[in-house]
Design goal:
By secondary structure, the protein is an alpha/beta fold. Helix content is 36%, strand content 16%. The longest helix has 20 residues.
Length: 283
Amino acid sequence: MEMKAEVESGGSINPMKAVLDNAPEFVNCPACKRRALKTAWKQNLYVCPLCGKYRPIGGHYRLKLILDPGTFHEIDSALGVNDPLHFPGYAEKAEEVGKKTGLKESAITGYGRIDGIRVTVVVLDSRFFMGSMSSIVGEKVTRAIEYAEKKKTPLLIFSSSGGARMQEGIFSLMQMAKTAAAIEEFSEKGGLFISYLTHPTTGGVTASFATLGDITLAEPGALIGFAGPRVIEQTIGEKLPKDFQRAEYLEAHGFIDAIVPRNEMRDTLIKILKLHQKEGRHA
């Protein structure tokens, strides 16, 4: 099948679709090692139909799953990677990743409608430098928050990130305070912020805007935390509890509000948005 069949609306490539379109009729799950029909994977939104293991999906594909058809309008699409420290090989790597993914940065920002309700939306795409937060990502997220505040729309952010981007050093770390401050101002003015955490959401993204939602949701099995479990175990010299930092563990301990499967994501958002619309908050 031609490569054009692998490209999503919006120009970025859905990684699982790219794999499956060129795969045999049956596909082996990397998690359970069992074989399932390629069509079953697609129908199940790239979740293994046998074991339920979630596979990554592209940012534009995720938008397609939640937004009303034809309603998404991207903002700040011209903003791409900056290289403030002239880090060796960074610009070249960014260009290479951009060609593979069709993205200019790890954050896709814009607005659209969910069941007719206008929303401002941010999606971090883990295929671009692991969804890490660069100075441009911080700027795009902040601008999206300010746009939601100006237009008085709910704000949805889908996080999938390895944290702050090391190639930009302190410039990337500064985005933690910048985005958190923007969320605080948005909240003070009555804005509704729904944060949806996907696998993985770690580092500086977890320590800033991702965990500041009025309502915090997560995909099943998502790794959510600051430092990784292996780093923590090596530091404290103890074995961590089973499923530590997984969405299910965090829900059981009150750190997230609910775990929402991928196929229930749109319906869940519709219910939340309509509830808050009735209460007179931004919608």
